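Hey Z.,

So I finally got round to the zinc ion thing we talked about over coffee. Here's the setup:
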Amino acid sequence: MQKRKAILVILDGLGDRASEELDYKTPLQYARTPNLDRIAKQSIVGLMDSIAPGIRAGSDTSHLNILGYDPYEVYTGRGPFEAAGLDMDLEPGDIAFRCNFATVDDNLVVVDRRAGRIKEGTDKLLEEINGMKIEDVTVFVKPGVEHRAALVLRGPGLSPAVSDVDPHDVGVRIHEARPLKPEAEKTARILNEFVRRAHAILKEHPVNKEREKRGEKPANILLPRGAGVVPHIEKFEKKHDMRAACIVGTPLIRGICKLAGVTSIDVPGATGGYDTDMMAKMRAVLENLEKYDFILVNIKAPDLAGHDMQPRKKVEVIERIDEAVGYLFDNLPEDAVLVVTADHSTPCSVGDHSGDPVPIMIHARDARREGEEFNEISVLRGSLRIRGSDLMNIIKNITNRAEKFGA
Ligand code: ZN
Ligand code: ZN
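And the result:
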């Protein structure tokens, strides 16, 4: 049997519900998608629950499950994946947090949770703070986009069971980190000490003095939230015996891939926003297919339209995706496997992720031809009714890589 290569295209938040504005069709049903429909006709089709029926998955937990990692086992919080997405070097057992640069007054009351959406100088602000020692714990911080940063605590006896320092609101005092379990007492103590010391450094920092002179809000505090322990994750290549790469714009999913040892391919113009260059992503898949057996592509835009509760915008995004996926399909080697699905539904009527299952289609040259059109309703004629955790097995089967169970 000739082993095949697989491309997994995840259209983030693609699934939806009946939209009143679209004659009670879903955006995917309503959109003109000649390419996706053409591929569906040559594919196995059906529905997937990215985690389990009715579970409202995050993008992180669903991607983990789809890639074959049990999120209930490896996911304790968002922090580690965000930190990995910023290319921080992490070790299993590290405790990682997401952080905001924020502005507080003299009484530690939050004036602006994003420090006036600070755009420059955050790397300088962190210079003195990164590498700080508190007791026997070393602190690492790295800036992200705008006001975002990641914080990592490394040392013995740490726990992710601490509450957020970020009060998630303005006009209130920052919170003390509290241990949510007795074994997290040390972590809470260190975290509070870190926030105090960082504040002392930041409020006197020349970058902030300059900001204040210009009438801008100083980034005078770091507010950690979303603690998680860096999990031990078996490398994707070892687990699935496929050399893997990913093309994803969002740091969170990049972080998941990084922890799984999946190479991230940077594509100029792939922003993770509405304006993302989808064609550039597809070209990058084709250029890298020689080197890898498995390439994950994530397109974030449908999720954004769902959060924005804009069904017509979602239709527009889907029609652009149709063109890009059509281009990919037409240029794939004949023997490649193409999977198109979503990580969860983000219905425009909800404005957030829901537990509604998502459509999936799996194309291979010799795949059973089940589909008619690619949407939530039409795929019901197909054979698939799966969970995200089934997908890698199904991919390994259709790429002729599955081990036989028994004689
Ligand atoms: Zn998502
Ligand atoms: Zn989302």
